[in-house]
Write a structure and sequence with these properties.
single chain; about 350 residues; alpha+beta; Thrombin, subunit H; six-stranded antiparallel beta sheet; five-stranded mixed beta sheet
């Protein structure tokens, strides 16, 4: 068995180092196999030739920006990473959203104006805080390019203000990125890919009922997400995993059914945008969600070791008296097994609904 004290010491040092750095830059020069860039060891910064992008993200780092350039041999990759999520929306702002009103998931376009380094305005009003989209630049020859994502930070009856965030949808590691910045008259496409959705339900009845109600949405089958979790040895998907998977598959919305309620979230911001009732749903539940993929188990020597290290370090470093299980699962600490954890309680925690009473 791995020595717990040794793990705690190593993890504590890892967290202590990351607390001293808000951003770090990792890179790989002249890389010729784009399909492996996220699992290869990166140079520079906190990566130090020892950690891959995937390992850095598991250790709590977030992608702030990506630059891919053509090199004489292969491609040059540069990742700017932050220990703070670049998409953090004040809950006081999102609490003003009326989630009971219908969500119009149709795309809308508007030219940007009053552009600054990270904000712009659009002539679309009465939007929900956290709604997102992409910014597109059109060249004189008619070709266009997505240069950024953005989300609604404030909105009134006449206009809305959007904040720029990295475009991480459907990452193309084999294509060089553009160094173009957002300017006035670029186009903001609201609700980009909102009709492409991830669906998480407790049983097949809720799965079928939701798909039957939203016939215009293309739902990626939960078996694909289940297969991904199995390959990652992660039986309990975190908010970060759900969000990253949805974006990697170019899905703009996430649908999660809890009891008889359906919650619709924006994939880029994980903001709750709409709540509806799904009637006549069976009370039967399945963890981690309805899927035909079996035996989604954890493995301490792969992905889950990072969660253990991070949380153990935090409790030690910050003098937190909670046990490892209490930090990992909160109120579900006494039910560590995937098969013992209650589906409804788990996703209520993931969505942060415990104190919101939504």
């Amino acid at each position: 068995m791995i020595n717990n004290k040794l793990l705690l010491l190593g993890a504590t040092l890892l967290v202590a180092n990351s607390l001293n750095a808000e951003t770090t830059t990792c890179y790989k020069k002249s890389w010729e196999t784009p399909s492996t860039i996220e699992t290869t060891k990166l140079d520079g910064g906190e990566c130090k030739g020892e950690k891959s992008l995937k390992e850095m993200k598991r250790a709590g780092w977030y992608i702030k920006d990506i630059e891919i350039k053509t090199a004489e041999k292969g491609l040059d990759y540069t990742y700017i990473l932050s220990d703070i999520n670049p998409v953090v929306i004040d809950k006081e702002l999102t609490s003003k959203n009326d989630i009971t009103t219908a969500l119009d998931m149709q795309t809308q376009s508007s030219k940007l104006y009053d552009v600054t380094s990270d904000h712009a305005k659009i002539n679309i009003g009465n939007l929900k805080i956290g709604q997102s989209g992409v910014i597109q630049h059109t060249y004189k020859d008619g070709n266009s390019l997505i240069i950024s994502s953005a989300y609604v930070e404030s909105s009134n009856a006449n206009y809305s203000t959007v904040k720029f965030i990295p475009f991480l949808d459907l990452k193309q590691n084999a294509i060089p990125t553009s160094n173009r910045t957002v300017t006035n008259n670029d186009t903001f496409i609201l609700n980009f890919m909102y009709d492409q959705s991830l669906l998480i339900t407790p049983n097949i009845d809720a799965f079928r009922a939701t798909r039957g109600k939203f016939t215009k949405n293309n739902f990626v089958h939960s078996d694909i997400f289940g297969a991904y979790l199995k390959s990652e040895y992660r039986p309990l998907p975190t908010q970060k995993m759900i969000q990253e998977f949805a974006l990697s598959q170019n899905m703009g919305t996430i649908f999660i059914v809890i009891k008889s309620n359906l919650y619709i979230l924006d994939s880029r911001t994980f903001t709750l945008l709409n709540k509806q009732t799904i009637p006549n749903v069976s009370s039967k539940t399945q963890m981690p969600f309805y899927t035909r993929v079996e035996k989604i188990e954890s493995n301490i020597f792969t992905s889950d070791i990072w969660s253990w290290l991070d949380f153990s370090a935090i409790t030690k470093f910050l003098n937190d008296d909670r046990t490892e299980e209490e930090v990992l699962y909160g109120d579900l600490a006494t039910k560590k097994s995937k098969d013992q954890i209650d589906y409804n309680s788990y996703y209520t925690n993931v969505l942060g609904l415990n104190n919101d009473k939504k």
